[in-house]
Fold this protein.
Amino acid sequence: MNSLSIWTRRDFVRIGLASAGAASAWAAIPGTARAAGGTVNFADIGVGDPGGDWSLFTKAANGWNVNLVAIGNAPSAILNVLVAGGGTASYDVINIVGGMQKPLVDNDLIEPLDTTRLPAWSRDRNIAEFLGKGTPGFNFIGYQDKLYGVPTVLQGDSFAFLPEKTGPLDSYAALFDPKFKGYVALEDNYTTAGQKTALYLKHANLAKIENPADMTPEELKTVVDFLVEQKRKGQFRVIWSSFQQAVDLIVNKEVYVIDCWEPMVFVAKSKGVNAVYADPKEGYLLWAMAAYLTKNPKRSAEATQAAYALLDFMLGGWYGAKITLLRGYMTNTDAPDYAKAHPDQFPAEGAEKVAAITANVHRKFAQGGTWQNRWPKHVDVYETEWARFKAA
Amino acid sequence: MLRRLLARWAFPALPIGFAVVFVVLPLALTIAVSFWTRVGLVVRPAFTFTSYEAFFAGARLLVFERSFLASIEATVLGLLLAYPIAYFLAFKVSPRAARTVLLLFTVPFLVNYIIRAFAWTWLLGRTGLINTLLMASGLTNEPLDWLLYSDVAVLIGLVTSYMPFMIFPLWLSLSGIDRRLIQASWMLGAPPARTFLRVTLPLSLPGVFAASIFAFVGCFGESAIPVIMGGVGYQMMGNSIASAMDVLNYPLAAAISTVVLAAMMSLLLVWYLAFDARAFLGMILRPGK
C-alpha cells in the first residue's frame, strides 16, 4: 500500500478545489512571481540601486532575488552590452535614461510592456500627467504607439550657481554672460548642454530654432557656431564629464556657473558650499529614466513574471521613496505617501525630504521646458558638430 | 622527421597563435570595418572610403594633429626627466639602491590613473595647493588659471603618467653598456661630457627609442587625462574614437583607429629598421653573455 491509498476520493476533491482556488488567486495577483528561488538580472546605470536591499521584493515575489549589475549610460555602452555582450540573455531588466527606444526596438532588444501585468502602473499619476501618449514625455517610455519602459525616475535639469559670486540668476543667459567669463562649465553632452543652449537661443530670439529637442542640421550648426564663438572668447573654464568632476568644480569654486544636475548641488551643499540650483525662466531640460524588459525568447514564463514583478515593485512606494532619498530624484506618486505612512522605514526627516524633492520636481515638470532627446533624428550630425565645438 | 618538425614548431606555435588570435585578427577586423558602410544602426560589409573622408575632412583631423604634438611634447619632456634618473640609477648608485628606487617608481601605478588625474586637479586648481602657496608667498596676486584645464595641465598629466614607464627601458639599456668602453674613452683622454655624447648616449639609443615608443603610444591613446585636466573640449584620439562609438558609428571609429594604428606602425618600423632589438638588451654589445 502506498501513501496515496489512504486518501479518500473526498480528500482528492477537497485538495483539488483548494489547489484550483490557490491557482486562481495566484493568477489574480498580477506581477507576483510564481516560482521560488530564481534571480532577476537587473542592469542599471547606478541610480536604481536601493542600497542593495531587495528584501521587500524578494518577499513579494515568492523568493525571487535581484542580481544588480552596473552598466554605463552612454547609448553605445548600452547597445554594446545588449548586442555584442549578449545582454538580452544576461539581463532581464535594464534601467537607463529613457528615450532610447528607437535603437533598442529597431535592434530587437526590448519587449513591449503589457501594463495589465503591472498593478502599480495605473496608480502612478506621473505617467498620465507627464508621460502619456501624445505628449513629448511619451518618447521616454514609448515608441510608435507601444509602451516599452517603466518610468523609474523623473527630473528637470537646469544649472547651478554660487550666489555670493554671481547674485541671483534665473536664465540660461548666465552661462554666456561675459561677467562670468572663464568661470563657467558645461557638461560634455550634446543632448544636455547643446539642448539647453538651443533653449536659451530660442527664448532670447537669437536663433530660429523650431524644436530644441530635435534640431535640424542647420539649427544645430547655429547652436554650435554660437558655442564655438563663446569658447574662443574664453567664456568656459572646462567641459565636465563625470559627477565627481562637476562636484569638485562647484566645491572648489573653480567655476561660479555650471550646467549640471541637481544632485551635484545636494552634494556640494552637504560639503558646506552655498550652491543654488537655478529656476530658469526658459524652463527645464526634462528627462526620465525607464526600466525596459529585454527581449529574450528563451526566458521562462516564470522568469518573465518575476521581471514584471520587479518592474511593478519599482513603481511602488517603498522603492520610489528609497531612490528619491538616495539620489534626489522624483520617482512615483506613491513614494511620498508611503514614506510618510511608514515611519519605521522612513524617519520623519526622510519622509519630509522625499515629499519636498517630489514636490520640487513636480513643479519643474508643471513649468515645462524642453524634453531631453537621447536619440535625435540627426544624431550623427549632433556628434560631429559637438566634436567640432570641442576641437575648436 | 615529422616528430622533429612538430618539436620545432610546437613551442613557437603557442605565442604565434596567441598573437594571431588576440592581436592580428582584431586589428584586421578593425581595418576591414573601417571600409564598411553604415545603414541606420547596422554596419554592412562594403568597400568605401566614407569614414576616412569624414575623418580627414572634419574636426577630428585637428584632434589627430593635437594628439601628435602633445604626445611628442610629453615624450621629449619625459625623456629629459627620465634619462638623468635612469643614468643616475645605472651608474651612480648601488644595484640595491637602484632596485629600491625603481620599485618606488612603480608605486604611483598602484593608484588608479583616474584618481591620480583627479589628485592633480586638486593640486593645480584655482583654489588648489600650488596656487594657494604661490599667492601666500607673494609670488602671484591671483591664481594662475593656466595651471589647470589647459594644454600645460595635460602635459603635466601625461609626463607624470608616462615618465616612469620610460625609466625602466632607459635604465635597462644604460645598465647593459659595457663599462670598459666608457673607461677606454676616459683613458684615451675624452672628457666626461664627450664620453657621454660619443659613447654612452649612442649606446643607450635603443633604450631611448624604446622609452619614446612606450610613452608616445600611451600618450597618443590617452583619454582620461585630457578629459579631467584638459581645457574646454580638449580631446585626444582615444576621446575621438569613444565619441564616434557613442553614436554607434563603428566604421568611423574603426577608421580613426586604423589611422592611429598606421601612425604607430610607422614609428615601430623606424625602430625596427634603425635598431637591432637585441641591442636593447645589450646582447650585441656584450657578445657571449
In short: Strands of chain B lie at 37-39, 42-44. The radius of gyration of chain B is 23 Å. The mean pLDDT of chain B is 89.
